[in-house]
Structure formats: structure tokens, C-alpha cells
Automatic annotation (TrEMBL):
This is Nucleoside phosphorylase domain-containing protein. Keywords: Signal. Residues 1-23 form the signal peptide. Residues 319-352, 369-389 are annotated as: Disordered.
Length: 507
């Protein structure tokens, strides 16, 4: 049976081929392109369709060699317009970790965007203002993930603390089904070593994860305790993710931003999505955002991030279950789906989170607004959203529909031009008719005045005639009486004129 684009509820976006690969392999069921109705003809994205749990998922990847905030915003906008019923999105892939004394982040861990008191879960660290003799100041605010995702994150975090996660087990099952993905196993990664921030590796062919190199640079290594048997496998961290258009390979800047904002990792796409494509950002740590960056951990990091995304979709109820459930369930099975409801609509509206702070910098109020709200009600939040995006998502929308708008505008221009010609001709015709009417009216007024003058002259000459003079005088008296009575009625006078009131001297 042919499926419509409106039946897909989850949009999954990847930036790299390895991220795209593991996302497709973790589908419970994959649909062929012939099973899905034709998408928007001007959408160049390539999609994989499938199902995870009860969710119909559409997956896409950025074009080869096209990375960064702008490319992600364009791809997300195309997906959103081709699949208008998407409830939320997932941005899943790899990132560079930002370990410090507070956050023991290691290679292979998972970082999930989660709101903090000052931010919605993602910080665009390279967008702001630079003032002389002052530090660079980041500006703008990016929205938090949708409420239904935040509820599921809280539930999943609780379940992981109770019973642990199945990320490695999910990866093993995937490799068992497809042996070509052996590189995604943790056993195929290199050593996990963290160097001091000031120790810079200047060579392009960095081999910092090799045993010989580690032994040589032993004095520059940061010693870390073993996590123990109870923390076998990746650890999941929830907090702030830094996003920007530059690849972070500077440990000093990494530490500065990590200490200032409590950033957990660095990536290059999320800032282009959060305000127009409500989504959760899930990242597997493949390096430490320093000059010792290597790609050997990327397959495993991409796999653990995708495995976490799969677990997340397994606890979010699908639209079918929401429609059949009269309300949220008060009990839940340990491994069953979380029965939560959400008022978050499909992507026909854009939600924006607005935070209000007191003098001490603490959040005193958190509200959510949508672009359908009158502009006066969300002026400040709309301004903040535009500042944080830098026009990226607006440009993406214009780029996608410019051809459609061109065709519509040309048709409208032709229609208006034709009607302007007709209207101009009618206007000129009306002006000509009005001019002729004025000329005829002036001629009638002149003729009327001439006739009245002739009648007056005739009456004056008749007054001197003995035979007709008396009759003319009485006719003139009668005419004056009629005029005076008419004038009295117009002035709403209660007094009526009579023949006795007239004086012959008036004539």
C-alpha cells in the first residue's frame, strides 16, 4: 500500500556517511521508495524510509562535503516542507568532547542536548559581538527540544539509572545482522588518551592514539581513574552542546568555553535547526576537540548515538497510541513505552522558548511561544531567534521556494497589468463623459439665466400696460408668495407668509 508523506512523524538528520549508515541499519523495518508517495519535486534531499517502534521515520544526510550550520538548516527546511506532519526531529551523529573536572567525558560516551538555566540545550558559540578591549560575547538564544522529547529524555534517564542501557547490545545485534559494520564495535577503536591543553600536535598525520606515541608523550597525559565495572560501556551525559561553523581543534578555546558555559561537546550543525526544526541533538564523542583529533573512534561514536536515538523512539508513544489512549498512564512497564502525552504540534508552527531572569541571573520564568502568535506578543523572542540564527533558516526557506514564488509572481504581474489597461481605458472614458456632462450643465445654466432675464423683462414691461398690468401684478404677487412659503418651510419657520404681509413697495 502506498504511504503518504503526511504519515511520517519523525525526521532524522545526519551529517556524515557513517552516521547515515548506522541510522539506516537500526531501522526495525525499511520501506522501499516505491512504497512512499512522490515527495516535493524540488527537494534534492535523498531519503531512507522506515519504522522504529510505532514511528514512521524518514532519514536524510547532508550532501557530501557540505557541513555546517547553513547546510543543516537548508536540509531540514527541505525535509520539513516535503513531510509537513513531522512531530519532532532527531539530529544524530558524532562530536568532539569537552572534558573537565566536573564532566568526566570520554571517547564513546553519548551527549544529549538538554535545557540549562541559561540556554535551551544548544549554544551557538561563534555568533555574537566583538567589542574592543572586551571578550567576545555570544548573543541570541536557541529553542529547547519539544516537550514530548524532554519528557521521554527524563524517563529514559531514570530507566538507565535503574537498569542500565542497551547501547552496546544494540550495536552487537546490528553487527550480527550485517558483518560489514564490524568497524562500529568498540573493539575496533584506538586508545582513549587525553592530553594536556597546552600540548599541541603540529603534524597532520597525528598518531596520538598509538602506543609508541603515548609512551613518548607520557608526561603530557592527563591521568584519569577507571570507571569501574558498574560503568561498563558508554556513559550518557545531558546538558549543553556547543555548535558553530568551525571545526573545534583548539584545546585552550575548548576549556575556556567549557568552563564558562559548562559545554559538554562541540559540533557543527545543531545551531541551524533548533528554532525552526524542533529536535533532540544526540552526539557520540569521537575525539576531545584538540589538535590530537583522529577518526578511528567515529564509527563507534556514530553507532552509540544512533543506538540511543533508537531507545528514545522506543519510549515515545506513536500517534496511533496517543489517539487510542484517553490520557497519560499512571503505571508503566519497566521496559515498555512511556505513556506521555504532549501538546506539541506538527511542524506547521515554530516554537520558541523565552527565558526571563532576575538581577542575580537566575531564571524566574520560562515560557514557550509560536510564530502564529501576534508579533507584538513575541517581539522579543522573535528578535532573539533571528539574532541567534543570523538569517540562516530564513535564507533556507527562500532558497527552496524561490522558483515557485517566481512563477506565482509572474502570473500575478500579468493579471494585474491586463486589469490596469482595462481600468485605465475605463477611467479615460469616464473622464470624457464627465467633461461632456459639465459642458451641458453649464449650457443649461446659461440658458436658464437668459430665460429668467427675459421673463423679468416681460413682467416689467407688462406692469406699465393698463390692460395686463393688474393681472401681471397679481401673478407676480402669487409667485413671490410661493417663494416665501417655500423658503419658510426650508428654514423650519413656524410662521407662514400670507398675501397680507406683502407690501406693494417690494415690487
Amino acid at each position: 500500500m502506498l504511504m503518504l508523506c503526511e504519515q511520517f512523524a519523525v525526521g532524522w538528520i545526519c551529517a556524515l556517511e557513517i552516521e547515515f549508515l548506522v541510522a539506516c541499519e537500526l531501522l526495525d523495518e525499511e520501506y522501499s521508495r516505491n512504497q512512499v508517495a512522490k515527495i516535493h519535486p524540488r527537494d534534492p534531499n535523498v531519503y531512507i524510509f522506515g519504522r522504529i517502534n510505532t514511528h514512521k521515520v524518514v532519514i536524510t544526510c547532508l550532501a557530501r562535503g557540505r557541513y555546517g550550520v547553513n547546510s543543516a538548516a537548508v536540509a531540514a527546511e527541505r525535509m520539513r516542507n516535503s513531510f509537513p506532519a513531522l512531530r519532532f526531529g532527531l539530529l544524530v551523529g558524532i562530536a568532539g568532547g569537552a572534558p573537565n573536572l566536573k564532566n568526566d567525558i570520554r571517547l564513546g560516551d553519548v551527549v544529549v542536548s538538554s535545557p540549562t538555566p541559561q540556554h535551551g540545550g544548544v549554544l551557538q558559540y561563534d555568533y555574537g559581538r566583538t567589542i574592543q578591549n572586551q571578550d567576545f560575547k555570544e548573543i541570541g538564544h536557541l529553542a529547547a527540544p519539544p516537550e514530548i522529547v524532554l519528557n521521554a529524555l527524563a524517563y529514559l534517564s531514570m530507566q538507565h539509572k535503574r537498569k542500565g542501557h542497551r547501547l552496546n547490545a544494540t550495536i552487537q545485534d546490528m553487527v550480527a545482522r550485517n558483518s560489514r559494520l564490524r568497524q562500529c564495535q568498540q573493539s575496533h577503536t584506538g586508545l582513549d588518551v587525553l592530553y594536556e591543553s597546552l600540548y599541541v600536535h603540529s603534524e597532520e598525520n597525528c598518531e596520538c592514539d598509538k602506543v609508541d606515541e603515548v609512551l613518548t608523550a607520557g608526561s603530557h597525559l592527563i591521568s584519569r581513574k577507571s570507571r569501574g565495572a558498574d560503568l561498563e560501556g558508554p556513559v550518557i551525559h545531558y546538558g549543553l552542546i556547543a555548535s558553530g561553523n568551525q571545526l573545534m581543534k583548539d584545546a585552550t578555546i575548548r576549556d575556556k568555553l567549557s568552563n564558562k558555559y559548562d559545554v559538554l561537546c562541540f559540533e557543527m550543525e545543531a545551531a541551524g535547526l533548533m528554532n525552526s526544526f524542533p529536535c533532540a541533538v544526540i552526539r557520540g564523542i569521537c575525539d576531545y576537540s584538540d589538535s590530537h583529533k583522529k577518526d578511528s573512534w567515529q564509527p563507534y561514536a556514530a553507532a552509540v548515538a544512533a543506538a540511543y536515538a533508537k531507545e528514545l523512539l522506543e519510549v515515545i508513544p506513536g500517534e496511533d497510541s496517543l489517539a487510542g489512549d484517553p490520557g497519560p498512564s499512571t503505571t508503566a512497564q519497566d521496559n515498555g513505552p512511556l505513556n506521555v502525552t504532549s501538546s506539541h504540534p506538527p511542524f506547521t508552527e515554530t516554537s520558541t522558548e523565552v527565558l526571563e531572569y532576575n538581577d542575580s541571573g537566575k531564571v524566574v520564568r520560562r515560557t514557550y511561544s509560536r510564530t502564529s502568535t501576534p508579533p507584538s506578543a513575541i517581539h522579543h523572542s522573535r528578535r532573539q531567534s533571528f539574532d541567534s540564527r543570523g538569517g540562516i533558516q530564513t535564507a533556507a526557506q527562500g532558497e527552496y521556494f524561490i522558483e515557485d514564488f517566481d512563477e506565482d509572481f509572474n502570473a500575478l504581474r500579468t493579471f494585474v497589468t491586463e486589469h490596469l489597461h482595462v481600468s485605465s481605458a475605463a477611467y479615460l472614458q469616464h473622464q470624457s463623459i464627465l467633461r461632456r456632462l459639465r459642458q451641458k450643465t453649464a449650457a443649461l445654466v446659461t440658458a436658464n439665466r437668459r430665460q429668467r432675464q427675459e421673463i423679468g423683462d416681460l413682467l416689467s414691461s407688462s406692469f406699465d400696460d393698463e390692460q395686463t398690468g393688474s393681472d401681471c401684478r397679481w401673478y407676480h404677487v402669487f409667485t413671490c408668495c410661493c417663494k416665501q412659503r417655500r423658503r419658510a418651510r426650508l428654514e423650519h419657520s413656524s410662521r407662514s407668509a400670507s398675501i397680507s404681509d406683502l407690501r406693494w413697495s417690494e415690487f
